[in-house]
Amino acid sequence: MTNNNKKEPDFIRRFPNLASPRFGSHTVSTSDEFFAAKERMLADAPPVFIPDKYDDHGKWMDGWESRRRRDDGYDWCILELGIDGFIRGAEIDTSYFTGNFPPAASIEACRADADLGDPSVWKAILPKALLKGDQRQFFGIEEPGPWHFVRLNIFPDGGVARLRLYGEAAPSWNDIADDDQLELSALKNGGRIVAYNDAHYGDLWALLSEGRGKTMGDGWETRRRREPGNDWIIIALGARGLIDGIEIDTAHFKGNFPDGASIQGADLSDASSDVDIDAAATWEEILPRQKLQADAVHQFDSADISAPKPVTHVRLNIYPDGGVSRLRIFGRRAS
């Protein structure tokens, strides 16, 4: 069984994984992927081990794995982030790699316009660090960027189950007029989850992702509430804005969708951190409680919404509990 007992750092709770395919992130090139394809290393799902699964190259492993080196070099894999981002922390997961994990690794990064073949463009954001086998390992990043390309170096060879890079998207607003409607809550536009009362099931960050949910596990779902009250989640928008459209999607939630939902907003432009943000906010109703349906897209426009003031954060309340696949907050940036 893989060892996942190490306490997760704060950056995992605060920031999405910028290396996730849901951002459009993908691997570009690698020195070697003889045993296991590089693309597996970016998968959102936790790694798995299938004892009896083999392929033409040997034991099938859920991650990226290079062959055994017989020289003095080391292996590497380059990935391109789907959107430029400020990286706050990294996770190098060697789950199920026991006798074949790399003893050490480092991470470098560069800008979008860089010549990837020029060694001088790469900035070390994680100096060479020791690794253990079959374990999730976390590293804070002090060179936040923004970055576009990332290179994972492993010394000298071996396998990595997952690479995750936690941080904030850094969208470019240069080509967007102030009166253009934007999906202010989208991960790709810098939206992020800052607080919630419960997230027992599902994939929390999927709530702000593109597309409809693929399964019931592709969204935010709370446990069954056995006491009075309701569940909630707070999202920091990618930009301060005036809200004029809302979408709540309960895709695949049929016997466990919320009976109703409402949305509140707050302008927390002066907040210095996410700590106790719910207690500090003065919440104002944007969308009164609405009845929800199973496995359906619910759309609300200016006729349903009361949002005369710009907001930086929204709070989705669900009554009393259940699952929501996607939440989309549309609006226009405000100064």
Shape: globular
Helix content: under 10%
pLDDT below 50 for ≥5 consecutive residues: which ranges? 1-5
In total, the number of strands is 22
CATH class of the largest domain: Mainly Beta
Describe this structure in words.
It contains two helices and 22 strands. The protein is mainly β. The protein folds into two domains: 160 residues, Galactose-binding domain-like (Jelly Rolls); 152 residues, Sandwich (Jelly Rolls), CATH 2.60.120.
Keywords:
single chain; 335 residues; mainly beta; Jelly Rolls; 2 domains; 8-stranded antiparallel beta sheet; 2 helices; globular; disordered N terminus
Sequence-ordered SSE layout with sheet pairings:
Elements: H1 10-14, E1 26-30, E2 54-55, E3 58-59, E4 64-65, E5 75-93, E6 104-110, E7 123-130, E8 136-140, E9 147-155, E10 159-160, E11 162-169, E12 182-183, E13 192-196, E14 201-202, E15 220-221, E16 231-249, E17 260-266, H2 277-280, E18 284-291, E19 297-300, E20 311-319, E21 323-324, E22 326-333
Antiparallel strand pairs: 1-5, 2-3, 4-10, 5-8, 5-9, 5-11, 6-7, 6-9, 12-22, 13-16, 14-15, 15-21, 16-19, 16-20, 16-22, 17-18, 17-20
Quick gist of this model?
The protein is mainly beta and 335 residues long.
